[in-house]
């Protein structure tokens, strides 16, 4: 009898195992980020025994995008092997995949779930919803998101009795005040500000002046809305900072120069806090403030990826994938992800989660970052954006290196936008 019961129990276990819905989730989260993600995946699998999510680390973002593109190409040619259910993706990746009609719209899931619909409408930050929405169609959920903040050396600022700047005029004044030739050899040893000659930093200055590049007009088309006079004003402001010697511009990340004291402040993402702390350890403190702007309200770009679902899997996998996406968007799980990774929470009501309240009780930096989401500006998300980004970075670097005038630089940026959008058919005449 015991043998029969044992056999029946084994059969039931085998039957149950085969009844599980299997989901592949491709991601680019390595190291501590990957460990935190795997912890969430393990919790979901434990709480949902009828579903098994396999989180597969593909490599860095570039490797992930290339693998997704090759998989989409193979699928279009009839291959049905090695197909993920979910993946991380930047908005411009999603726009590219939409050309192949492989991304699952999520409106139906959102609309059929009143509790989630309420959270989507009122708790998820609008800027993050914008990044996953084309027209009225939602193609993803926000996942690992960062805002930019003004990193500064609090020891130095306290020594000079200055506060972090709130306006662009104050940014210039503080940068001037903290630029010094400490050993009196005729060379600056300490710059008031550090910046990179990439599009990321150009965007920070541009958004600070309430200007942006593109506007989505529907049907996969974008209109160039870069204002000429304001953009030239921004370019002149940046060049004046550099030529006056108050800002150090370079190609690489700025946390080493910040830690060594070569720069007093810089603008970077909240995800870079660990690097700033490591480079500054034993030398000085690390603090951050909201980004300065012309109106004193921070207008941060958004960095980081979203989660998308593919429509090439069966309905049972789609339904299971949606359960996993909802799980990741639960306030407690959002708090856990943010606390353990440094990414900014994607929903407002995280502030009601006890773990988040404890986390922020003695450190206001996470709260500063969270509040920046209310006035942040969504990045452009056409399929052409990755190539456009690279080209504008080159244009911006050439300008900083005195290879082009303000007028020539503005024209080059507009031409870059137009050329890139036309190549992908996303240009609105």
Automatic annotation (TrEMBL):
Compartments it resides in: Cell envelope
Domain of life: Bacteria
Any Pfam family hit: SBP_bac_8
GO CC entries: cell envelope
UniProt keywords, alphabetically: Signal, Transport
InterPro entries, per the entry: Bact_solute-bd_prot1, SBP
PANTHER family assigned: ARABINOSE-BINDING PROTEIN-RELATED, SN-GLYCEROL-3-PHOSPHATE-BINDING PERIPLASMIC PROTEIN UGPB
Family statement: Belongs to the bacterial solute-binding protein 1 family.
Name of the molecule in the record: ABC transporter substrate-binding protein
Species, as recorded: Petrotoga halophila DSM 16923
